[in-house]
Amino acid sequence: MTLHHLFKTSLTGLTTNRSRSALTILGIVIGITAIMLVVSLGAGAQALILGEVQGLGSNTIAVIPGREPTGPSDVTSLFSDSLKEKDLVALENKSNVPDLQSIMPAVMGAGAAAYQSNTYQVTIFGATNLMADIFDLHPAEGQFYDGSDVLSRSSVVVIGSKVASHLFDTEDPLGKNMKIKGKNFRVVGVLPSAGGGSLFNFDEMVLMPYTTAQDYVLGQKYFSRIIMQAVSDQAVPVTAADVTLTLRESHNITDPTKDDFTVQTQQDLANRLGTITSALTYFLVAVASIALFVGGVGIMNIMLVAVTERTREIGLRKALGATNRDILTQFLLEAVLLTAIGGIVGILLGSSLAFLISIGLSRGLGVNWQYVFPWSGAILGFSVSALIGLIFGGYPAGQASKKSPIEALRYE
Question: How far, in Å, CA of 146 to CA of 150, rounded?
Fold first, then answer.
């Protein structure tokens, strides 16, 4: 028998029982749809996160207190007060870090903000006025505090949009005094709504001079971060190395394994976040692939039933000259066609759902969530679905090819 004839015969066998064929490939469709969804949404999330990171500027360098965690159990490295005023002074020294363009210490904490009878739990972010340039923050109302406010430890704040709506409702917050830990702070600026997609949720933040935050709110003499900018993108590696050497000298560290700080560039952070999101995507793909295995078992069971039901057909075809190889190829081709069709349907369904979900996330979260068609997922899904047809269709096809034509014709 020619391959064309076998293909035509296989299609006839599948279309004869359309309902059963559709139910047979349901597991494959669900598995491929899940893979397409996971890969597409994972790529969209990765693009969003990396976009936020790169939006901070590729020449940005951050110093984080504590050494880089070496594993899940290494929690002591996450809590440290190693960055202090002497480190800031050392880094500001041009002879230590020649290619440093700007530097900003930052402190972070949490607290309750109050205005009249309204209270709201906020994130407190203390920094210099350079924060406006580094994070591209432009108040929708009022203005940002300036360098003189940092030096004089002024009790002024710039608040996020949610803080403004929860505390002041319909009132204009500018010039009003709000309380944090019993101290009055004058609102000088209100940020526009940024949505929940940013790495930093400025909507729920209260920004103030870091000196004010240290002395009057958080009561700490160390920094949560030191954020710097190099003079150019090309100077980032050299600047990061100079920062590392300066801090080791400031902390009297001679063994690099004893570092009590971590220096991160934007590229380092982007690479790490990319690795994390990719690993999570692969894990979810592996979980979704279980549906493909279940679908493969279902196809094998249905094909075995089909072989039993078509025993007389097999006997008749053999009596007319079909060889064992022809019967084997026919049933194997039927299984591959079933799973390939399931793969195509799953790809179309999964990509369509991913597109709709991407639109929903963009509008619902107020972020630029990109739809990414997962070519790798589509190729993987189609290839795996066809392979499942070969693997799980092989046993039923083998059973069909081994039937004796005489016994098959006598089968009732």
Answer: 7
Using a 10 angstrom Cβ sphere, with 0-12 exposed, 13-18 middle and 19 or more buried, the burial of residue 112 is exposed
Q: 302 near 335, Cβ under 8 Å? A: no
CA–CA gap between residue 99 and residue 345 (Å, rounded)? 56
- DSSP state, residue 192: P
DSSP bridge partners of 114: 119, 179
> Would you state the structure tokens that stand for residue 328, as one six-digit string?
């084997």
CB atoms within 10 A of CB 316: 14
In 3D space, the residue among 145, 190, 149, 144 whose CA is nearest the CA of residue 166 turns out to be 190
> What is the distance, to the nearest Å, from the Cα of residue 291 to the centroid of all Cα atoms in its chain?
23
Least confident of 97-106, 113-122, 222-231, 398-407: 398-407
Q: Letter for the amino acid at 26?
A: L
Banded model confidence at residue 120, pLDDT cuts 50, 70, 90: very high
Helices 85-92, 236-250: crossing angle, 10 deg rounding: 130
Beta pairing class for 118-127 and 100-115: antiparallel
Nearest Cα to Cα of residue 140 among 115, 176, 110, 173: 173
DSSP assignment, residue 187?
Answer: E
Q: Tell the residue number behind the tokens 């035509």, with chain if given.
A: 8
Q: How far is CA 61 from CA 83, 105, 260, 303, in A?
A: 15, 12, 17, 60
Please give the structure tokens belonging to residue 93. 């020294």
Distance, in Å, from the CA atom of 91 to the CA atom of 398, rounded to the nearest integer, reads 74
Average pLDDT in the chain = 79
Which residues have C-beta within 8 Å of that of residue 175, sequence separation ≥ 6? 186, 187
Q: Please identify which residue in the block is written with the tokens 């349907």.
A: 345
> Is 176:95 a contact under the CB 8 Å cutoff?
no
Q: What is the DSSP letter of 404?
A: -
219: left (phi over 0), alpha (psi -120 to 50) or beta: left
Whether the pLDDT of residue 50 is over 70: the answer is no
Single-letter code of the amino acid located at 241 = A
Summarize pLDDT for 69-107 with one digit per residue, the tens.
555 444 444 457 788 899 999 998 989 999 888 899 999
Rounded Cα–Cα distance for residues 337 and 385 (Å)? 10
Residue predicted with more confidence, 401 or 239? 239
C-beta of residue 337 within 8 angstroms of C-beta of residue 14:
yes
Based on its alpha-carbon atoms, the radius of gyration of the chain, rounded to whole angstroms, reads 32
pTM for the whole thing?
A: 0.60
Alpha-carbon span 349 to 176, nearest angstrom: 53
